[in-house]
Amino acid sequence: MGSGWFGSGWFGSGWFGSGWLGSGWSGSGSGGGPAVFPMRPDFVAVATPHDLGMREFPPNAWDADLYSLKILPEFLSFNWKAQTQPGVDWRLLSNAHIDQEIQMLLNRGAADRPKRIEEIIRQDQNFQEYWLQLLMITPRSHPATFMVMKLAARVAEVVMMYWKVFYNRPRPSQLCPTLLPPISVQGHAAFPSGHSLISHLTSLCLSDLVPVKANALDALARRVADNREIAGLHYPSDTDAGSDVAAKVKPLLMQCPTYQYWFGVAQHEVVSTAPPFPRQ
Length: 280
Description:
Layout: H1 64-67, H2 71-76, H3 80-84, H4 95-126, H5 129-135, H6 143-167, H7 172-175, H8 194-209, H9 214-230, H10 236-253, H11 257-269
Helix pairs in contact: 4-9, 6-8, 6-10, 6-11, 8-9, 8-10
């Protein structure tokens, strides 16, 4: 997405921090690259204590983008391909069905794109921030919940790309140029929709943590995925496949030890122990 998943795209300057050289865990950096500190000409002459008692890298200093990669060997050890394949193969859809999907996109683009254009642009690369806003949390206030979201996205990313390459579906605007997507068409195939897969998997995971928000989380996932159709980037069948695959990925994700650990920690975060805010 955008200029790269580890750059300014999904794992870039928005929800996922500012990339490998950015602010890491907190996601609060300016996104302008690594900080540069002036060299002290007298640093050798300064007496510096050596903290040899530190035997581990501080947990809160970990870059969450990089740490979340830890879950991939665990997930990939499962028979995940057989268990996550989309229930519908777009290649079996008739030309009449595909033509009907494209006409639907044309109609929705004309009717809804002017009203949704700001969302479409915002959600192209930073769509996960909407989940943070819905739950009224930040990476600093709920780091374990944030990590659960990142672990889900990492796994979804791998599954998504495998099936995209496998099915290799052309984008709607390649079949119908007059769809004119208002943002750049990504350099990968359409099926299944990555926004749909990540959105629905994120909502499914967070619904386990905050059941009272389950309906709102599901509505948010559908909204984000729907905006990709309005933008002319995905067919409705792409969206449905993303949702279908997300539901199949979740049981496997829950078996990963790294996910189990962070989910357990996150359960303590979502229950506030702070006293009521004083009203007088």
